[in-house]
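[Automated response] Your request has been received and processed.

Submitted sequence:
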Amino acid sequence: MPGLILLKNGRVIDPVNGIDQIHDVLIADGRISAVAPPGTLPGQPECVVYDLQGKWVVPGLIDMHVHLREPGQEYKETIETGTRAAAAGGFTAVAAMPNTKPVNDNQTVTVFILAKAAEAGFARVYPVGAISSGSKGDHLAEFGELRQAGAVGVTDDGLPVGNSQLMRRALEYAGDHDLLVISHAEEMTLSHSGAMNDGPLATRLGLRGIPHIAEEIMVYRDLALAEFTGRPIHIAHVSTRESLALIRRAKERGVAVTAESAPHYFTLTEMAVDGYNTLAKMNPPLRTEADVAAVREALRDGTLDAIATDHAPHGELDKDMEFDLAANGIIGLETAVPLTLQLVRENQLDARRMVELLSVNPARILGVGGGSLSVGVPADITVIDPERKFVFSGESIQSKSRNSPFLGWEMQGKAVLTIMGGRITWQELLSS
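Generated structure:
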């Protein structure tokens, strides 16, 4: 059982409880025991003390979109290495997408993932099951079985649900089983064989483009289905300004929609792939400066509810090939905090909004615990040093894979202490 930990003199940012001030936090028996002004909590000799002056103490970060690859592709990532990378990035919980081998469309795979996560002990893992059996888009998976086993949502992420009737039924039945439906919005007849954003750069590089409407058409369809069924939907990895406009208008009409984007979509443009850089190849692809600006505005105004990494590890050989054939996706768990903090430094977001996007809202959307520092809840806590500078290098990466366009970047802001259930899962600080 975890012992006593006292976090002293940190800037406690807890939007749920309306706290943004210097406080001490006492952890006892794995739970938050007290949150109070400095010096008011009684000292105890067996307490491990951390002086966090200049650092932020926030509810444990939750990444609602990761690919852990296990079972089936352990050479890219395992549940152990992926959750260790999560802890190093400040995440106390992650939602695992179902495109494993075999696909997580049944109780057996869900139970396996949960057992492996418990064995590793670095972060809570919330399995997300497949919408369709085998993610083939033919018929629905067994939602009741998935929910009973511990799944929190369903998606065919990596593939869209092309059949509109199947997506309608998914929304209806998922609601009956208290499962979140997550939409991978892509019209495959428009994106098929595409390798990057459609436009002049793709033409110059001789690459087939993926037009922005490939995303927007499916966003429109899934919003329409959510409105028709009266059931909630979550739109994953939003990348275009018109998708955001559609989501914004749907929210204004009262549609039960939430949405996420990823740090690479508010940091990089399509120019990152110039020179055939496969480390910047992803789906949906990196877009234009106007799209980046729209994502930033949507994070600010509430159109986007969450920042999720879409952590997608790949082996070196998966990326070291012709651009057209290279795998899509990048790792993101260990760069999300500094990249989001860059928006705070640029006054695009404030600290409270950052915590909402990375902790409060993911917990609410997934319907899981976390997202606050309320007394009595499990002590899932992230300590961030907003001034900590480091170079993101392959040697420091905890993930099993190294596929990131941010390699070699000098970054500012880092998770330096991650606590899950009162137990330290990542530490770059010494106790006093």
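Summary generated for your ticket: The radius of gyration is 21 Å. The first strand starts at residue 5 and ends at 14.
If you did not submit this request, please reply to this message.
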